[in-house]
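Protein entry
_____________
===
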Amino acid sequence: MTTTKELDPVLAERYRFIDFLLLFKGQLTRAELVKRFSIGEATASRTIASFLEKYPEEVEYLGPRYGYRANPFYQYKYEHNAVTGLQYTAYGTLTQTLDVQRYGIVINKFAKQLDVANVAPVCRAIVNNASLHIQYASTTSGIKDRVVNPHSIFEAGGFWYFRAYDKSAYEFRTFKLSRVIKVFQLHSDSSNDYSKARDDSWNRQRMVELMAHPRNPIPDAQLSDIGIKDGEYRSILVSEALIGFVLNDMRVDCSTSHKLNFIEYPLALKNRTELLSVESMLFAPGFTSSTDNRSRS
């Protein structure tokens, strides 16, 4: 593993970002370095050229329009954080911690620390429209091999998930990254049958109506939280595949007759009956449906 102590600090930071892109995206363009470091195109070109001179067998040049592509067995040169890769792939954000006086507290997180070796191929598969052969632990079928085509990443409840077409189930499903035990192989796959455009549940937007919990005798604070007055409700559009996750994050009581404790769940779902058929409602607080026998991944 390369250490940044071997290089000039400025060059080392740029090398690390090149390595980061090749690991999590599987590709690299000069424009990404220009934008990230506010440098000129000539400087970016020289930086990439010097990186490729150092690691000549790792990257393929595709031309000025498409930039560079990592080979399928690319070995990263620097240490990277899996969550940082997910945040960049999902939202285009890079977080930086500065050595300054801090006034917040570190929140204890009990979620499993994600393995870069499992996360990076999922990110690359999304960026490059590829399929993955993975070993996955499901709550309903245990540990089994699956071939999936991931298309999107999201975070909910402190965990990271990816949306993918499951070729063994012949449908789009939501997978939890912490349950990916091993990634066996990344396959090139250009079929549009497994693309995000074909995932109806992901693309379909549904209206969710939120209100202060009806069992709360003094709902003023909850009304203020969502910016409404007494007797009003807040409407939001949410992807059908994400509704249950969003309602769980917002601590919304989705039970019949709103039976959950209003102190724990200060908001309530107003239009519950309209969302009974939504599969992701299985993840919503208090939601049950006796007629729904679908399984979770």
Notes: The first strand starts at residue 27 and ends at 28. The two ends are 35 Å apart (CA to CA). The CA atoms of residues 227 and 234 lie 8 Å apart. Residues 4-80 form a domain with the Arc Repressor Mutant, subunit A fold (CATH 1.10.10.10).
